[in-house]
Amino acid sequence: MTAPRQVDHSALRTNQAFIIGLLALGFVLDAPLFVVFVAAVMVIGTIWPEAGLFKRIYRHVLRPAGLVRPDVIPDNPEPHRFAQGVGGLFTTLSALALLAGSATLGWILSGIVIVLAALNLFAGWCAGCTMYYWFNRLGVPGFTYRPLEVKR
Asked: What is the pLDDT of residue 135?
């Protein structure tokens, strides 16, 4: 029997909080480098999950200090990684637009990421996870995991 798949949702919420905070700060300060930084963190964390900076801050600083408690629940990590990849794509496009002088498009793209991360952080709804499971239901290659059945 295989061990149940689990995800620490506190790590995900910490990641979302950093994304929201840094992108909002970048907008307020009109500082595209914040977007570039967040895009890099998100893309790297998608490709190499163990290197995700915001999750590492949670794992090595916030959790050991007792500032954030673990919230490990049965879940698939792949939909969350896919969601981060979609966010990484949007923030990369945002950064490119900002650096190319298209501030309106760049900040709109960052705004979309902020709104979707906030929906996940505050309402518990992950748009990227929903997309992942839709793709799974449609039989799209690579989207192999179904939602876990929670026994009540």
From this structure: 97
Please state, in angstroms and rounded to a whole number, the distance separating the CA atoms of residues 92 and 144.
26
Residues facing residue 73 across a β-bridge: 7
- What is the token pair recorded at 75? 């879940």
Domain that holds residue 48: 8-138
- Helix (H), strand (E) counts: the chain: 6, 2
**How would you class 53 by CB atoms within 10 Å of its CB: exposed for 0-12, middle for 13-18, buried for 19 or more?**
middle
pLDDT tens string 16-42: 999 999 999 999 999 999 999 999 999
Q: State the pTM of this model.
A: 0.92
Counting the structural domains of the chain, the total is: 1
Specify if 52 maps to a domain.
Answer: yes
Residue 22 lies in a domain: yes
